TrEMBL record:
UniProt keyword annotation of Membrane present: yes
UniProt GO MF annotations: efflux transmembrane transporter activity; porin activity
Species of the source: Geopseudomonas sagittaria
InterPro entries found in the cross-reference section: TolC-like (IPR051906)
Name of protein: Outer membrane protein TolC
Biased composition (Polar residues): 114-129
Keyword hit for Membrane: yes
UniProt signal peptide: 1-21
Region Disordered, annotated ranges: 110-129
Database matches in PROSITE patterns: PROKAR_LIPOPROTEIN
Classification lineage: Bacteria, Pseudomonadati, Pseudomonadota, Gammaproteobacteria, Pseudomonadales
Keywords, comma-separated and alphabetical: Cell outer membrane, Membrane, Signal, Transmembrane, Transmembrane beta strand
Gene Ontology cellular component list: cell outer membrane; efflux pump complex
Length: 504
């Protein structure tokens, strides 16, 4: 046929061009400039919505800032919002499919057909053109499938439970965040309180070390006594430097949690702390009941078990015979058609015979998933009960340690007063001054550390029980309003009852 080789060559060229286009894509590494620019842009975006910090920062303001501006918490909120969007989309899976389509057809020669005589086997000399070389076909149809409807229904129910799981994960992240902020705030407060004293005592110890080495070199005192003196000064220096290193990171950790500029110096308002044993006065059975009802991990496992049961029902639906219905309106521009417009409908009942063999295995698999989800829920419940008792005991231990550290600090304060009097009367050596100030700093640091442990233990118990602040949506509240809500919800144990869950 004329032109056939040319057409084949053209087809070969088109295929070769398509293949060459697919093989020319190579990895494109980001340049350092692009990474730097994106890093600056991301840093600006991270701090764009955060209100600047002015004046003294209280612990309630720090918690409010963390709840509103912490980047990891924003990710959790976006995951929750994404789960809600997926639920909205999954509702459409239960709707019938409405399909509009239009196509264009072209061929380079006529579609010609012949007829053969059934009795003689001879071809008819007549040749019939049954279709135009170019024509378009358009249709609008609706189809409905019984199995798709059932599977879509249970998929939507499962997605609704996944939304609730996302809520529980957000709650758990909030509990951990509040615990970290409370611990970091007290560490930063102790750093703010002790930094000046540590630096001045370090300078005093360094000077005492220099003086001792000078006295040793000039033979002004026994060399062994001088070395023992230096050993004691160096030991005090080691303790002071360890304290300084521990305190140096506290502000950075707190700034990262509340999404504040890392280089900004935070001025913290140290809150008044009073020892309270209200949490320990609540009956353990009451704590256990609250944890079983409100703990985020337990609630998540309940929803996972419900998803597993929905999976069993979905498997059953797939094993049923399928009923499908379709109806369409069609139009074709082919002039050889007598009826260019027509409506078409169909009803079909089908059944996959292999389901007779695979069905029992699929059901057993789904039932195994249910048993696994139930076992995980039981394991988490027992672990949570143990964690409730453990968190309560840790709080009791932390309170005892704080009371002991507070008593030691109070005693050291009284000793320091007597040593100051001796210093004023010039009856105290330089080594005694360094040792005394180092001891005072250590006792105050341990008091703050014990206080931070009390805060962490109390927050851990609240997280285990599922207790959280009674606040409205974080996005709807201003920072000042959110801070006021946190202040009002501080008396957790005094108003202890059924905790408010998922208040955001």
């Amino acid at each position: 046929m004329p032109g056939t080789p040319y057409k084949k060559n053209s087809l070969v060229i088109l295929v070769a061009l398509a293949l060459s286009a697919c093989t020319t894509i190579s990895p494109q590494q980001l340049s350092e400039q692009a990474l730097t620019e994106q890093g600056h842009a991301d840093r600006g975006a991270a701090l764009a919505e955060a209100e600047p910090i002015s004046g003294m920062l209280t612990i309630e303001q720090a918690i409010a800032r963390a709840l509103k501006y912490n980047l990891e918490r924003r990710s959790r909120l976006m995951e929750e919002a994404m789960a809600f969007r997926q639920l909205d989309v999954s509702h459409y899976d239960m709707l019938p499919k409405l399909l509009a389509q239009s196509g264009y057809s072209w061929r380079d020669n006529d579609k010609i057909s012949q007829s053969r005589n059934n009795e003689t086997g001879e071809l008819s000399p007549s040749q019939f053109v049954s279709q135009e070389r170019t024509h378009t076909l358009s249709s609008l149809g609706v189809s409905w499938n019984l199995i798709d409807l059932g599977v879509g229904y249970y998929n939507t129910r499962q997605q609704a439970d996944r939304v609730l799981i996302a809520v529980e994960k957000r709650r758990k992240a909030m509990h951990v965040l509040m615990q970290d902020v409370r611990t970091a705030f007290w560490r930063a407060a102790s750093a703010q309180k002790l930094r000046a004293e540590v630096q001045s005592t370090l300078a005093l110890a360094e000077q005492a070390l220099v003086d001792s080495r000078t006295a040793e070199s000039e033979r002004l005192r026994n060399p062994l006594d001088a070395l023992r003196y230096q050993r004691q000064v160096l030991e005090n220096l080691r303790l002071l430097e360890a304290i300084d290193q521990e305190l140096s990171t506290a502000q950075i950790e707190l700034a990262a949690l509340i999404n504040a500029p890392i280089g900004q110096r935070l001025q913290l308002a140290e809150p008044e702390f009073r020892v309270s044993r209200q949490a320990l006065e609540i009956p353990v059975t009451r704590l256990e009941e609250t944890a079983m009802a409100a703990n985020a991990d337990i609630r998540e496992q309940h929803y996972n078990a419900r998803i597993a049961r929905e999976e069993t029902r979905k498997t059953l639906v797939r094993l049923f015979p399928n009923l499908s219905f379709n109806y369409s309106i069609n139009y074709d521009t082919d002039s050889y058609l007598v009826n260019s417009n027509w409506n078409e409908a169909g009803l079909q009942l089908s059944f996959n015979l292999f389901n007779l063999f695979t069905g029992p295995g699929q059901l057993k698999l789904a039932e195994a998933g249910v048993k696994l989800a139930d076992q995980r829920r039981i394991a988490v419940q027992m672990a949570t009960l143990a964690q409730t008792h453990l968190a309560r005991q840790q709080l009791a231990n932390a309170l005892n340690q704080f009371e002991r550290a507070d008593a030691i600090w109070s005693t050291d304060q009284r000793i320091n007063g007597h040593m100051q009097n001796r210093q004023n009367s010039q009856m105290q050596s330089q080594l005694d001054m360094v040792a005394n100030q180092t001891t005072a700093i250590l006792s105050l640091l341990r008091r703050y550390q014990a206080l931070a442990q009390v805060q962490a233990a109390e927050a851990r118990l609240q997280s285990t029980l599922g207790v959280e602040p009674r606040i409205s949506s974080v996005d709807d509240l201003s920072l000042a309003q959110l801070t006021d809500d946190i202040i009002r919800s501080q008396n957790t144990w005094g108003d202890f009852g059924q905790p408010t869950v998922g208040g955001e």
